[in-house]
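During the reporting period the student researcher (J.K.) took over the structure-prediction task from the postdoctoral fellow and processed the backlog of single-chain submissions. One of the processed entries is reproduced below for the supervisory committee.
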Amino acid sequence: MEFRRLGASGFTVPVLSFGTATFGGRGDFFSKWGKTDVAEATRLVDICLEAGLNLFDTADVYSAGASEEILGQAIAGRRHQLILSTKCTFRMSSEPNDVGSSRHHIINSCEASLRRLGTDYIDIYTMHGFDATTPVEETLRTLDTLIQSGKVRYITCSNFSGWHLMKSLAISERYGWARYIGHQAYYSLIAREYEWELMPLALDQNVGTLVWSPLSAGRLSGKYRRDQSAPANTRIELGGGEGPTIPQEWFYNLIDTLDAIALETDKSVAQIALNWLLQRPTISTLVIGARNEAQLRQNLGAVGWNLTPEQVARLDAASERETIYPYWHQRGFTERNPLPVPSYR
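J.K. obtained the following structure tokens:
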């Protein structure tokens, strides 16, 4: 397993990490993602560690805390072997202050996550979304205090806009507080908007990218084909969230390209989609999910080899989408404002 540095830190992470949103299956929304119990979770953790994947990602909001609880039981007795990442910000109850990135909510959420995970420290603590109602100074000062206390090692953010992240980095620098070393973001062959603003920012400020949903909620799993019925019992078909709408013909043209490269490489569509991401600038790790052992083993096959530059170029072309302003305008001035390319990494 390859390890890469996470942003402007001395900390390295495996290029594949395991997301545990399928653990628990509590509630109407997360029950559609999966219902992995402790026994199956322990088996999946075993397989990950055997493959050299030691970063496990969860969040307090996943199945209302059940994901953290199950992960905590699955790793009992081997905490020292792995890296734990969890998150807070989203609402956990009807209590007025049980939401957001206030000092009150962050501290309470961190303590609750530590209890559920059965640990006394969190390696990577993430603000799951930007809280525009709380001063950024309050959020970052609180996170810095958690680091000073030893309860948190590093901080990252998720789903931020460019200005959210840049403002946060500037405030951390102003006061000498810990900075976000990573941004957990939605990025795949289907969703390349991350490249427009957030990737150039990450390159400029040395922020590592932790990619969530690298297979776009399973669309790039190889199960979707032109002129075939959509597979049953998938997260998308069950209504467990699928992201923005995409043009159907454009999507199937992309799948055709993936199928052609799959024949050339003797790799699966999912493995090709993941390998393409690993060759993009700023990428530190891809958060892969799996409902079962077979899915996990297939995703682990995305490492240890690389697509050729020609194959990457074909996927780049097949997945290209029309950009919005000001990015289409900036593309006309690449002489002085170059686009991010893999050679930057």
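The committee noted the following: Residues 3-344 form a domain with the TIM Barrel fold (CATH 3.20.20.100).
J.K. will present the remaining backlog at the next meeting.
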